[in-house]
Amino acid sequence: MKIKVIVSAVALALSVGACSKQNESEETASVISPTEQSTLVSQPVNGSDFTQASLNQIGETLDISYRVVTNVPDGHCDQNTVDGRCFLAEIDLTSQVDIDNKDWAIYYSQMRPIQSIVGDEFTITRIQGDLHKIAPAAGFSGIKKGQTKTIQFRGELWQLSETDAMPNYYIVADDLEPVIIGSTQVAVDSETGMEVRPYVSAFTDSDTQYKRRETDKLEWATTEVLYRNNLNTPVDASLAENTILPTPSKVSLKIDAKPVSLKDGLKLELNDVSLEAVDAALQRLARIGVGQSDAEIGRGISTALLPLTAPSAKGEYRLDISSNGIKVFAADDAGFSYGLASLAALVDVDTLTVNPLLVEDAPRYDFRGMHIDVSRNFHSKQLVLDLLDQMAAYKLNKLHLHMADDEGWRLEIADLPELTEVGSKRCHDLNEDTCLLPQLGSGPFSNTKVNGYYSKADYIEILQYAAARQIQVIPSMDMPGHSRAAIKSMEARYRKLMAQDKAAEANEYLLSDSQDKTVYSSIQYYNDNTLNVCMESTFTFIDKVIDEIAKMHQQAGVPLNLYHIGADETAGAWLESPVCKAFIANNDKGVTNMQDLGAYFIERTSKLLAAKGIEAAGWSDGMSHTRPENMPKQVQSNIWDVVAHGGHKRAHTQANLNWQAVLGQPEVLYFDFPYEADPKEHGYYWASRNTNSQKIHSFMAGNLPANAEQWTDIEALPFEADDMLKKDEAGKIISGPLKASIRFAGIQGQLWSETVRSDDVAEYMMFPRLMMLAERAWHKPEWEVPYQYQGAVYNQQSGYFTKEMRQAQAKDWHRVANTLGAKELLKLDKAGIAYRVPTPGAVINDGKLFANVIFPGLSIEYRDAKGQWQAYSDGVTVTAPVEVRVIAADGKRKGRILVVN
């Protein structure tokens, strides 16, 4: 995952030892539970008499709860960390049996490392990454049946979300099989379909639990806050009529013409267009009730695919609907597919009619991408195929498939079986001979859905499925940082081959120097996740992987011409590597100091790719360390810098190099962040705690710094974006505006999966935000502030975003919001997409309930005092408190319940 620079500084300053200190001076916190939770009769566990049965019993009955006490720092915080901040949290252990034995440990994932622990009964030790171990300490006095022992500790920075508390704690003892502690497993809400964490105590206090610091002005998204935010959006289904998402360049309604019925289907005239090129678009029409008619019977409306003369852009099309027939004009397969997609967008799913009109359309950006991380937690092939269907429906054309990172390698590679035999799964093997260490709450066993990989056949199927929808798949195996899965897999291979006296084979693909004593910590707290770039075997490995992926593309009939190397977040590795010291001393590669090794790796790998006819892509932070003169002429940089922290500067610098700069600003395009500012919402939150569809809609992609006029930072504070030319004392340009001839290549949404454990949660996080991504990637709104090529300073008083522009933006949002609520979400329901059903806004005034929703048209329900759910009507009389929820467009799934007081 991409983490903002200020947080990266914390990770770089940490060593392993600094993350697991114990404070012996503070008192033990333990209390007796007022009531015993069970009448279970059992023998105490004492001495060293653990058996598998007794360990299983503890796993089944031990009750664990986790709670954040406060995020307000106190005098006990470690002052050597950035800002000297810490949070205070507690883990309760309530046993159903007497536990006197000290020979056990509980392993669990702790998102932030521990600074100190209160008391002397337990230790908490960080193993690697987020894997921690709770163990009895010298002062451990046992846990009696019915007793609650509280482990109080302080951790780095803050924890602002209930989903920070990862699941699947497990207990180990002696050589017994590990046992998952049942109370720490996630449950699934039967009505929402979403994960819930019953072991996490709910946040109750905004000031102590939900504020990052004293200056934080962000409001918890209570029903009152949501009501206020939604209040200005009218409920007007007529705004959805003749509306297409993403918005076309031009729509002309034919006056006085009657609706055209599609009930009898489409009588398709392909002319010279292949059926395979448009079959996916036809399938979507069929899902909403518009199939193809039987040509012999002669029913159905004539639908002709015809050539478009003099197109100006890839994917350009013209859609002409009249009572006499439908015509789609295009010059390429994408254009024909997009024309049919727009026809599907216009269909009234109840009447299966469309209005006669003319659509003239072309995309704003050629690169319209969606990134999905299947490495941190694996996601099924079916999820990817379903995602591709929806990308095609909304005219997105690039799938950035992130398949290798620290926590998993997800693609079968010929001749390197260890990558998937070891690197695709996490389990309790501390030697990592058979799997990687557990991370992200994955638990001790490898047979879980968060583990897995795509076979070669799976990947080829994905490629072909994407190509049939005019979508390019961009494979990504992150390097040189974020490479722990590859490193540990190749170390396991090395050990296996060395045991067979095959030293040459063992060293062929080795990625690490066993004598490297460098102490570093990545942003995810690993000290062993960076490829050693001084070893030739590293480049042998990379060459092998790229060649094998290219072969799969060739087999699929889809050439590999863009490959994403990652290139980001290296964390000070190599400094004490003997191999690297020798490498620099020899100086035969033009590298004279350790600081140039990262650039050397990216430059060399990019050239390796270019020699194979493949363009290299990387994340903007790593790409910024390269020497442009040493890079291929054609490269892509994915910009993930936060606008509120001057993120426009790197975007402009790299675009001005004539690189293909693809925007992915975290505060608006990271879909692993919460939708609303609520600690129950899924996701990390280091750049934004409230990225809902309206915020994405507001994004001015063509003028990054101008967003300072309409957005606030993560703490809801205003910020300034200075886009004037800046030079250092030597006259070198530090930052400045875009050159007049430069444009961004496109935009890309990102789903990182650290907190995304299931396919349903992945769809919840991506939809409906993906539709707003498509809107901003395809359509340039009239309300976007024109870019000032001479440079400008933007803030909430600068006035470039005029009153008229703001009004036009609001009016545009009203149209889009009503379109989603009135017709588009229903199409997602028909496709089986588990999109997020929004939380409602609501207030009680004079005993009457008033409620609204971000997507007008969705139904709202309420109930008094746990009574029966009733359909909401405006101003209904109620008695507080009242529970409210929103219903999915098809009336089946339910949204999360909120309480109105």
Count of DSSP E strands? 40
Query: How many domain modules?
Result: 4
Distance between the termini: 38 Å
Average pLDDT, rounded to a whole number, is 93
Active site: 569 (proton donor)
Enzyme class: hydrolase
GO cellular component, one term: membrane
Catalytic activity: Hydrolysis of terminal non-reducing N-acetyl-D-hexosamine residues in N-acetyl-beta-D-hexosaminides
What's the arrangement of secondary structure elements?
Layout: H1 5-13, E1 29-32, H2 52-61, E2 63-70, E3 86-94, E4 105-109, E5 114-117, E6 122-128, E7 131-136, E8 147-156, E9 170-172, E10 179-180, E11 187-188, E12 195-196, H3 206-209, H4 223-230, E13 250-253, E14 260-261, E15 266-269, H5 275-287, E16 301-307, E17 317-322, E18 325-330, H6 333-346, E19 353-354, E20 357-361, E21 367-373, H7 381-393, E22 398-405, E23 408-409, H8 418-421, H9 456-467, E24 472-479, H10 484-499, H11 503-508, H12 536-556, E25 562-566, H13 578-586, H14 597-611, E26 615-619, H15 620-623, E27 635-639, H16 647-655, E28 660-663, H17 666-669, H18 693-698, E29 721-722, E30 726-727, E31 733-735, E32 746-751, H19 759-766, H20 769-778, E33 793-794, H21 803-830, E34 841-845, E35 848-852, E36 860-864, E37 870-871, E38 876-877, E39 882-886, E40 898-900
Parallel strand pairs: 15-16, 16-18, 21-22, 21-32, 22-24, 24-25, 25-26, 26-27, 27-28, 28-32
Antiparallel strand pairs: 1-8, 2-3, 3-8, 4-7, 4-9, 5-8, 6-7, 9-10, 11-12, 13-20, 14-19, 17-18, 17-20, 22-23, 29-33, 30-31, 34-35, 35-38, 36-37, 36-39, 39-40
